[in-house]
């Protein structure tokens, strides 16, 4: 008889046995069918179908002779000393298609007096694990609890078996990170794609096309995202910025309250839409948006020019209520010259100082001394500690009352125009 060697390790035997049942596909067989693997052998080293008369099992791939009465790391409340032997497991798998009552009555007949049966829940649990329907087995956990030790790692290490065209790998260092149930994480690729390509320069517009025209109101969000992303890497010579349009910077993160997806509808139409809903209207994340607004007449009061200033103006006039086009972006990569940065009139702070890394003024104190700062939050949110020390104006929106969006937006435009008129009047129409 061949030497048992390291294959007689109970944990290794259990792991190999499960690999064999999985390699068979875990399919149900007849009540009288015996499991062909591992092959059971009689005392005379001859193969037999009678588990009751056999003493050893031939366990692949080493073809080691394993005693059928070897206790396995499975604990049953009904088995003799609690531990399930290889003989008992062979009988359980051989009668996997039998009713529980038939299994109970014929366990000793099929496996001999040393074959012990398990309870109905334990049988169901073990068969589900052997078929690959479950990743864990409660009988193993019970064995660990009763023995006061951990199951040897070899019971769950890589066990690869080749049988003609069948190859099954139970676990390995390359498969431990594989998500169960074939979960789809493609949405993470879409989320991370935008920040990765945001810094890449888009192709410059053709000179023959001239300046880009505004889209119709019915499709302004989707059209603006397509036409604006074609701007060059610098704004100094961009056709869409021939009149030195002012610039507003918003946070780049999708977790921010204000993003490139919903800033246009909020600042132009006074309608707040959560980012996850607003992004459905875009094929891809816009890198440059145009917001059209009729600037308030400096001689008029804020109340008399309230909601009418949220729509595009039709008249022109330097600083006297003409149309005002403001560019919005979430990355300063296009701002390559001092003249470009001079056109920045407002920055929405998301609450994290890393937002300003790589900017001309990376320090928040210096930044908000040069531009007007704003922080947008919901009424039930606390002001981030970092923002409390910044020179920013706090805009508070209600989480559910959308009719209160208009006063907040009007407050923003009134404050911004007042600041621009006092600090950068050349950027007003």
TrEMBL record:
Q: Which domain of life is it from?
A: Eukaryota
Q: Where is this region: Disordered?
A: 198-238, 294-323
Q: Where in the cell is it found?
A: Nucleus
Cite the record's Low complexity compositional bias ranges: 205-218, 225-238, 299-314
Q: Which GO terms describe its molecular function?
A: RNA polymerase II complex binding
Q: Which UniProt keywords apply?
A: Nucleus, Transcription
Q: List the GO terms this entry assigns under cellular component, sorted alphabetically.
A: Cdc73/Paf1 complex
| GO BP annotations, alphabetical order | positive regulation of transcription elongation by RNA polymerase II; transcription elongation by RNA polymerase II
Q: Which InterPro entries match?
A: Cdc73/Parafibromin, CDC73_C, CDC73_C_sf
Keyword Translocase in annotation = no
Question: Ranges for the Cell division control protein 73 C-terminal domain?
Answer: 243-419
List, alphabetically, the Pfam families matched: CDC73_C
Q: Which family does it belong to?
A: Belongs to the CDC73 family.
What is this protein's name? Answer: RNA pol II accessory factor, Cdc73 family-domain-containing protein
Taxonomic lineage is:
Eukaryota, Fungi, Fungi incertae sedis, Blastocladiomycota, Blastocladiomycetes
């Amino acid at each position: 008889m061949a030497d048992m060697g390291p294959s007689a390790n109970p944990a290794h035997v259990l792991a190999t046995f499960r690999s064999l049942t999985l390699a068979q596909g875990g399919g149900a067989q007849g009540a009288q069918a015996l499991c062909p693997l591992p092959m059971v052998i009689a005392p005379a080293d001859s193969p037999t179908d009678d588990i009751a008369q056999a003493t050893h099992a031939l366990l692949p791939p080493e073809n080691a002779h394993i005693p059928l009465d070897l206790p396995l790391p499975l604990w049953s409340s009904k088995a003799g000393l609690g531990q399930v032997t290889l003989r008992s497991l062979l009988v359980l798998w051989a009668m996997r298609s039998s009713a529980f009552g038939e299994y109970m009555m014929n366990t000793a007949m099929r496996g001999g007096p040393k074959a012990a049966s398990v309870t109905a829940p334990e049988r169901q649990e073990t068969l589900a694990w052997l078929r690959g329907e479950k990743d864990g087995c409660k009988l193993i956990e019970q064995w660990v609890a009763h023995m006061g030790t951990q199951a040897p790692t070899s019971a769950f290490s890589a066990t690869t078996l080749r049988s003609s065209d069948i190859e099954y790998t139970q676990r390995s260092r390359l498969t431990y990170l594989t998500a169960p149930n074939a979960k789809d994480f493609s949405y993470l690729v879409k989320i991370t794609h935008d920040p990765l390509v945001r810094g890449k320069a888009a192709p410059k517009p053709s000179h023959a096309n001239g300046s880009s025209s505004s889209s119709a109101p019915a499709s302004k969000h989707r059209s603006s995202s397509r036409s604006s992303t074609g701007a060059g890497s610098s704004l100094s010579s961009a056709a869409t910025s021939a009149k030195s349009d002012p610039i507003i910077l918003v946070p780049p993160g999708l977790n921010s309250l204000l993003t490139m997806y919903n800033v246009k509808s909020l600042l132009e139409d006074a309608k707040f839409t959560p980012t996850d809903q607003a992004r459905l209207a875009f094929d891809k994340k816009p890198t440059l948006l145009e917001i059209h607004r009729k600037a308030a007449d400096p001689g008029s009061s804020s109340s008399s020019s309230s909601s009418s200033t949220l729509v595009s103006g039709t008249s022109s006039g330097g600083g006297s209520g003409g149309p005002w086009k403001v560019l919005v972006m979430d990355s300063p990569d296009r701002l390559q010259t001092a003249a470009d940065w001079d056109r920045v009139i407002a920055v929405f702070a998301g609450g994290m100082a890393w937002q300003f890394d790589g900017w001309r003024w990376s320090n928040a104190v210096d930044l908000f001394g040069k531009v007007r700062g704003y922080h947008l939050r919901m009424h039930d949110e606390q002001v981030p500690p970092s923002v409390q020390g910044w020179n920013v104006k706090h805009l508070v929106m209600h989480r559910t009352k959308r009719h209160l969006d208009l006063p907040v937006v009007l407050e923003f435009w009134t404050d911004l125009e007042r600041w621009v008129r006092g600090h950068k009047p050349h950027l007003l129409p």
